[in-house]
Amino acid sequence: MKTRIILFIAALLSVLYSCKDADEFQNVIYFTGTENSPVLKISIEEPTDLGISVRASAITKNDINVTVAVNEALVDKYNKENGTNYKTLSTDIYSISNTNLQIKAGKYISEPLKLSIKSLNEFTDEDIYCVPMEIKNVQGGDFPVLDASRIIYLVINKTIITKAADLSGNYFKVDFENKDLGKGDLSAVNELTMEARIYVDRFQTTNPFISTIMGLEENFLLRIGDVTIDNNQLQLAGGGYPVTSVNGLSANAWTHVAVTYDGSLIKLYVNGELESYVEAPRGPINLTGLDGDRKFYIGQTALYGRYLYGKVSEVRVWTKALTKEEIQNGICAVSPTSDGLLAYWKFNSAKSDTELNVVPDLTGNGYHAKGIRNVSWVEGVRCP
Question: Out of 113-122, 187-196, 293-302, 366-375, which region has the weakest mean confidence (pLDDT)?
Fold first, then answer.
């Protein structure tokens, strides 16, 4: 069993308090690692031990005994307050070595308790689990509990190891114009999100320096580069309201990119963080495309090529504007039955042995992505 002791160096309490002199300073007790956020995110791929400790903001004169406990009711409360959908982790899956921690006199940190994840059998690719631990009681000394750090939320997900599609010499068309499929007429979509995990082997080096990720040419197109920006900057183009990322993307690294439109704002996200946005009162988006062949493509544009040289995984289109939290929580996987999910291509397998160029839409809506040739797969892709 792999052991990972999660012990963080505390920030100076002057960061937490604006004190003018020592008389105004109050020493406190809190969970190690919660100085900036009560949430500790952990990815695991095998049974794992996690070390959790408490600490004081100064060396203690007496032994301080701290009682902690898991409080599963806090999961629902956290979800409601933060727009997340974390699941409680069954107590059959984990155990805790000790709930009584002690900060010895002359010290400022306790020995860690051990939270053991005994099995990953309950974990699914799309779910994220939360174990909230709370300081219940403190005895000895006169250090109160820092309220903002009374609870630590251990947010745990399973590392996914899968395949991805190599886009070198390949691209995919999606028949959103087909009214006989899933959601019928998609010519006036009021809200939209497009997202994907991409691995760029190289950015375009010839004019117009564009690498296409997905979307509709001259309408709503997520791409990288242009003649007026760097060839590694993410951009949403088309529809009269372009928006470009502040920072460039990195080659030879897996990156999650997303664009949302809520009817008034277009926002770009990179790895779940907001990069840039623009006011865009453009009205509904026509997912069926414009005239001719300007339809929805993945890995190229309809008219000009502008291929993406790299790999792709976890491509999705939603008929709603995802929040930052929803994007962050779904980087590696989501449930195919998620509300508002129009199409979902994992890009880890072909539709069938007789359709090796087709990547299935997992939502059941029938918007399969059809490549111009059989898909080449890349093994051993990890997320996160």
Answer: 293-302
- Whether omega for the bond prior to residue 281 falls within 30 degrees of 0, making it cis, is no
Residues 298 and 342 in one domain: yes
Q: What is the pLDDT of residues 209-248, one digit of tens each?
A: 999 999 999 899 999 999 999 999 999 999 999 999 999 9
Domain count, the chain: 2
φ, ψ at 252 (rounded to 5°)? 60, 40
Task: Tell whether the torsion through CA atoms of 213, 217, 220 and 226 is positive or negative.
Answer: positive
- Using an 8 Å Cβ cutoff, are 170 and 372 in contact? yes
Instruction: Say if residue 323 is in the same domain as residue 216.
Output: yes
Structure tokens at 170: 């390949």
Asked if residue 225 lies in contact with residue 232, where contact means CB atoms within 8 angstroms, the answer is: yes
User: Are 51 and 185 contained in the same domain?
Assistant: no
b/e burial code for range 167-203 (CB count within 10 A of at least 16 → b): beebbbbbbbeeeebbbeebeebebbbbbbbbbbeeb
Gyration radius from the chain CA atoms = 25
Find the DSSP H helices in 263-345: 324-329
3-state SS assignment for residue 172: strand
Q: Which two tokens stand for residue 368?
A: 């399969």
Query: Containing H/E element for 201?
Result: strand 192-202
Band (182; pLDDT cuts 50, 70, 90): confident
CA separation (Å) from 121 to 46, 146, 158, 161, 383?
Answer: 10, 36, 10, 15, 18
Return the CATH number at 42. Answer: 2.60.40.1740
Determine the Cα–Cα distance for residues 145 and 157; give it in Å rounded to an integer: 29
Structure tokens that stand for 22 in this block: 């020592």
Q: Is 78 helix (H, G, I), strand (E, B) or coil?
A: helix
pTM of the model: 0.86
- Return the minimum-mean-pLDDT range out of 13-17, 102-106, 137-141, 210-214: 13-17
Containing structural domain, residue 145? 29-159
The pLDDT tens digits of the residues spanning 266-323 come to 999 999 999 999 999 999 999 998 776 679 999 998 777 799 999 999 999 999 999 9
- Cα atoms in the 13 Å half-sphere on the side-chain side of 171: 21
